[in-house]
Amino acid sequence: LGAALVLLIQSTRVDSESCAEFNFCNGHGTCVQATSTCTCFEGWGAATDLMTMRAPDCSMRTCPAGLAWGDIAASATNAHALAECSNRGICDFGTGECKCFAGFTGAACQRTECPNDCSGHGKCLSMRQIAALDDSLPLTNGTFEYDGDEDASTWDQDKLFGCVCDSSWDVGLRAGQRQQPEYFGHDCSLRHCPSGDDPRTFVDETDCSNVTAPGGFAAGKQGNLCHVDCSNRGNCDYHTGLCKCFTGYYGRACGSTSALAD
Fold first, then answer.
1. Which residues are within 8 A (CB) of 197 and not within 5 positions of it... i.e. 6 or more apart?
2. Residue 165: enclosing H or E segment and its boundaries?
3. Distance CA 196, CA 209 (A)
4. β-strands 37-40, 29-32: how paired?
5. pLDDT digits (tens, 9 = 90+) for 92-141
6. CA angle 201-253-188, nearest 5°?
7. H/E/C letters for each residue in 222-253?
8. Which of 27, 89, 213, 215 could be stapled to 109 by a disulfide with Cβ–Cβ 3.0 to 4.6 Å?
9. pTM for this prediction
10. Cβ(27)–Cβ(20) under 8 Å?
11. What is the Cα–Cα distance from 60 to 157, expressed in whole angstroms?
């Protein structure tokens, strides 16, 4: 009995010194025998891992981190430190994956979703990408750079996303380009109808030379085109992109006149 008791005590001491109570660190860490505590590997609760919770037995996985959407500023010009799931999601410690709140996406919930995924008629791009395009709205006489200061002023350069809608014609302020894209709306779900000059007027409504583009930042160059849905002689169904011409007018853009016209 005495020998058995000694063996039991020795066995218990060995187990406690090898982190048996922590399931031997679950194979995701090393045991510090002097204290019978686990030092977890990276990705499983290491001291360098960014986690809101840690398991002493290294059983909880680390989720990806991104610049926080909201946090306490470190200074007057520095905020948005790295945070688990970017503070816009819940970490699943079993899988190491973020479950993002509505409207956010990415491995770390680090960026916004585009509305309705741009309805299949646009590109979902970041603010940094959109600023560099000359056909994104509102139109301007040049492109811009929105990057290079992620620790301060451009922290959201690759976080805020929006739609740049598709078009079968060139969009811009130069000659031959139109000031509006074919598809439009915040989610590119609407479609312009065929364009034409109003047959009842003496001016060319499609001439956008020196006409300020929507948004008010710049005007069209010589030969720039305005888009005139249905030649102003019909109603445009923006869901189908088809004109319903007024009585006496016909054609894809309602630009032709019949004897029935007023």
1. 204, 205, 206, 228, 231, 255
2. strand 161-165
3. 16
4. antiparallel
5. 999 999 999 999 999 999 999 999 999 999 999 999 999 999 999 999 98
6. 115
7. CCCECCCEHHHCEEEECCCCEEEECCCEECCC
8. 89
9. 0.81
10. no
11. 32
